[in-house]
Amino acid sequence: MFYFNSTKTEIAIMYHKVKKKVHILLHPELGNTKWDKIINGFIIILIILNVIAVMLETVSWIHEPYFEFFRIFDLVSVIIFTVEYAIRVWSSNHDPRYSHSLHGRLRYMISFEALIDLLAFLPFYIHVIVGLDLRVLRILRLMRFLRLFRLTAYMKSARLVKNVFKSRANDLKLSMVVILFLIIIASCLVYFSEHLVQPEVFSSIPATIWWAIITVTSVGYGDMVPITIWGKLFTSIITLMGLAVFALPAGIITAGFLEETRKLKKSKKLICPHCGKPIDQGNHDDE
Description:
Elements: H1 2-25, H2 34-56, H3 60-63, H4 67-91, H5 103-109, H6 112-129, H7 134-142, H8 156-167, H9 169-194, H10 205-217, H11 229-245, H12 247-267, E1 270-271, E2 278-279, H13 281-286
Antiparallel strand pairs: 1-2
Helix pairs in contact: 1-4, 4-6, 8-12, 9-10, 9-11, 9-12
């Protein structure tokens, strides 16, 4: 009985060790081994090739003669992404956030990263199992572009961008609210200035919102142009305000990048070239 319990314990320990190694391999930010880099590079290349394949399939003189190649490539990619997703779900409860064997995995499966992974290959199975109308199939096939978002899990630069937007989310939301207010106010002012003169062009406030968005974000398309004095005056003020307001998100994002860059520099450890051990930067500075 003791031997059986001992063997069972050893198997459990080995099981958890394998799960930990697999989890680290699928999360490049947690490890820095040769195999981490190989798997990381392979997945990145596969995702990029998938996006290129989706674009090339829209070129008839390329897609038609190589239809079978594109079909097989998509099938192989789906198999790889499916296996990777299954392994990710299996090893996810190594993460303390999803530690429970069942509920933890379910929480992981509804996380944003896991949903992106799922949507990257789910349309293929929906088409194979259900069978779809050609128009619906085209829409679902476009979802393969979601594979591009999976790069955020493998590229440090993509993770940096993600961290910037995550850390500055509240500031960006506030700036978006200010921009939204400006667009609504601009639409109302110009509508009441121009509607009587151009009822077909500025037919309603919702229709004028299109004009406000284009005017605030750029110089306009020219399809809706104020011709009254008040309309031109409001447009001039709104355009100048738009330049100032749209500088807010740019400044917030720039500050976020600088902050994240400083964090990365602080997190890097100095390694002693002689013994290979990390150097305590605090003590080193004091000396």
